Amino acid sequence: MPKWKIYTPEGVQDILLEDCYIKRKLEAKLRRVFAGFGYNEVETPTIEFYDVFAADSDVTPQETMFKFFDQQGRILVLRPDITIPIARIAATKYRDARYPMKLSYIGNTFKYNELGGGKQKEFTQAGVEILGASTPEADAEIIATAISAVKAAGLENFQIDIGQVDFFKGIMEETGLAQQEIEQMRILIDRKDFLGVEELVKQHDIPDALKELIFSLPGLFGSTDVIDKVEKMAVNKRSLKALENLRQILNILDEYELGKYVSVDLGMVQSLNYYTGLIFRGFTYGVGFPILSGGRYDNLVEKFGKKCPATGFSLGVNMIMTALDRQKIDFERHTTDSLVCYNERGRKTAFKICNELRRQGLTVEMDITGLGVEQSKEYAVNKGIGGILNVLDEENIEVINLTNGESVKTNIMELTGRII
Amino acid sequence: MRYLNIALSKGRLTELSIDLFEAIGIDCTELKGSSRKLILTDEESKIKFFLVKPSDVPTYVEYGAADIGIVGKDTLLEEGRHLYEVLNLGFAACRMVVAGPAELQGKLDKLNNKRVATKYPRIAREYFEHKRKETIEVIKLNGSVELAPLVGLSEVIVDLVESGRTLKENGLAVLDIIADISARMVVNRVSMKMESERINSIIDGIRKQLEKGRLSND
After folding, report:
1. To probe the interface with B, which of A161, A289, A292, A319 has the most B CB atoms within 10 Å?
2. pLDDT in tens, A177-188
3. Do B188 and A117 touch (CB under 8 A)?
4. How many angstroms away from the CA of A288 is the closest CA of chain B?
5. Which CATH architecture has domain B4-92+182-217?
6. Would you list the domain boundaries of chain B?
7. CB–CB of A213/A134 below 8 Å?
8. Burial (CB count <10 Å: 0-12, 13-18, 19+), residue B137
9. Verdict on whether the full-model pTM lies above 0.90
10. Chain A closest CA to B190's CA: distance in Å?
11. Is 3.40.190.10 the CATH number for B94-180?
């Protein structure tokens, strides 16, 4: 007997009734926000060649990807991410298109994640990308879109932390550290391991002022004063330019009146190969992981053969659902407005009534059990249906209000407001 | 106000952690009692403590079930979690080492097939594969690791060493030091942002306590 036939693999889930309804609603809200900002949606294949993701091994390490082979023996993967396929599209399908181009997506992605706390192996990501614009306005719009999306999802208490990887890269240029040591430093700073940073710095011959600056990196987070504080210590053009860029983005966000959602973290240094400027992450209560992340990745599209600056973000739909649930934020639930019962004489009329009410936008269920009105009451109450329309014959209908048990007789004209 | 959750390592770190939290004015009386309750609360400062197995502390903190954790660096290295490691508490100091028969001193890379017995497979792999660029065979044990090279189960071991007495008495020697180990305070990445004020005041308080301790020891 097939041993596993009644199970699902670890890390994937059935999303049932209520949850599925909430998820679809949430996706619809996100889609509306993205469209409102002028993003056009695209759909990319669930299966891609491994090579598409192989070059960015620090954001999509090969151990985390689901891999298999096609008939020619080439390695395929279930997409771990949708940004990289969009970069592929931009460089190939839209090589000669008019830029900037604004794209959005909502789709399932796959990673061998450890489970728990909202993490699954199959999870839905929603996001947007602006391709072909390197202005701070583009970066600010990405953050503004992210904030609008989170608010539309129903979360009010959240925070977006923004940083700039070029600030770190600029400082590292001055230290003369080798690539491997820089990566080690990045990990320590990203972990806010003050002691580790100090130990690593001490092993190298670095000017004292620069040492001080590096020691302070893990602690450089908070309000925008962080930038003022560090500007005086900044060491070269590259790091100063990064701070200037960050300040511009923050100013624009202030004018969007979104300043209150944003704070600065210069010690946030994710993958240095992937990100080239702004980076940001979104946090909220109730989930231990970021609900969204994004930034500028000007070198990604080039890997597919077209030089093209780009910026974007993606948001974890399941993570948002977990947060909404933990924060006990109420959702609109699926409801059925009425159940239509009938006997044979009224059947034709019953169908007509259903059609008319559905045309008016109501949710109407037909009694398909054939058990009659008394038995249907129990079903309707159970399902939270507000009332029953009992079609008696071609003309007459009994309306039963299930919340108070009252019933009134009426006819088709009164009920639907017109002759049907 | 939301409760801050703190995960403490059950065992030798427990008492030292309690002393620190008491020193900064958090009421730990419930913790010191012999209660079987799993969650112990200080209502005044809105803090909940739970005592968990040391190797579970990083998990609780990474997932946000605990905002703060106290745990040994050995566990952090072994678990490799995504956390903020904000303070070195200094206590429970020891070293993670490679040890083996004294005659292997300086000849570690001459060994063709290395079998490494350890309670810390990840640390052992990380050290041999990334730092030494050598392939190893890991044999996971749960205790008395020193026995393995004596009975031919492995060539060397990776383990915590405090005084080195057990090694010496069994004719083993430290072949290389992998890392200095001591207790650390770790913080969930999201909590650090969402509760930054309260968490930072705890960190600052403890840092001051530690400095005071260091001064009085000197």
Report:
1. A289
2. 888 889 889 988
3. no
4. 4
5. 3-Layer(aba) Sandwich (3.40)
6. 4-92+182-217, 94-180
7. no
8. exposed
9. no
10. 6
11. yes
